[in-house]
Amino acid sequence: MRLKLAAGNWKMNGTGGDLHVLTELAQRHTHPACELLICPPATLLHRAAQAVEGAEIAVGGQDCHPQGNGAYTGDISAQMLIDAGASAVILGHSERRQYHAEADETVCAKALAAQAAGLTVIVCVGESLAQREAAETLQVIAGQIAGSVPDLASGNALVIAYEPIWAIGTGLVPDTGQIAEVHDFMRTRLQDRFGAEIGGQIRLLYGGSVKATNAEEIFAVPNVDGALVGGASLTAADFSPIVRALESST
Ligand SMILES: O=C[C@H](O)COP(=O)(O)O
What we know:
This protein is an alpha/beta fold. It has helices spanning 20-28, 45-51, 78-84, 94-99, 104-117, 129-133, 137-148, 176-194, 196-201, 212-219, 236-248; strands at 4-9, 34-39, 58-61, 88-91, 120-125, 158-162, 203-207, 226-229.
C-alpha cells in the first residue's frame, strides 16, 4: 500500500512568524496512512524542523545542489538540508525549470545526490498550456520522467508530482479525466522501467490549484496518492481541509 502524502510547497513565502502554521497542522493531523510534509523556504527549515519535533509532520527543502559542498555561492546541498532537519526535497519544479533554466539532466543529478544523502525526492513534471493544446502532454511527461528520474533500488523514497504549468497558481485545474490519463500513463511508464513492484511503490501527486473545494474529487482519481499544494498550504485554515480530504480518501 502506498502511504498518501499531503505536501505543501511554500515557495518564496514565509518568515519566522509563520511557523505557527506547522504547529497547528501538527495538532490537527495524525492519520497513520497519510503523511504530511511542509517545504518552507530554506531560511526556515531548521526552525520548522524544531517546531514539529516529535509530531507527525515532516519538513523538506525546495531544491538542492548536485554536489555535496564547494564553491557554489547561494546553493544548498542535500546534506545541508538533512543537517537542517529536512527529510525530503522538491526537485525540478517548473519554477526552477523556468527561472533557473534547469534541464532534466540537472534535475536527475540533483535527485541522485538527494537520494544518496537519504532524502525522499519529489520530482516535478508537467506540460505547458501550449504543449497541452498541441496534444503533446504525454510525450512531455514521458521525456521528463525518462530524463529527470534516476535509476532506483526502491520506489519508496521517490515521489513524482504531476503539475501542469497552466494550473499552477491560476485557479485552472484539469478535469479528473485528464488527471487520470496522466497519472495512469506515469504509473505505466514507471512500471515498464522499474518493474511492477518498484514502479508500483512510487507515489504520484497532483499539483496545481488544489483547494478545499476540489481536493475530494482529485483524491478520488486512481493513481493520485496525494497533492503538492502551493498557495493553499500557506495557512492551516486552507491546508487542513485538503489534508482532511486526503485522510478521508484512505
Ligand atoms: O508546488 C506547488 C505547485 O506549484 C502548485 O501551486 P498552487 O497550489 O499555488 O497552484
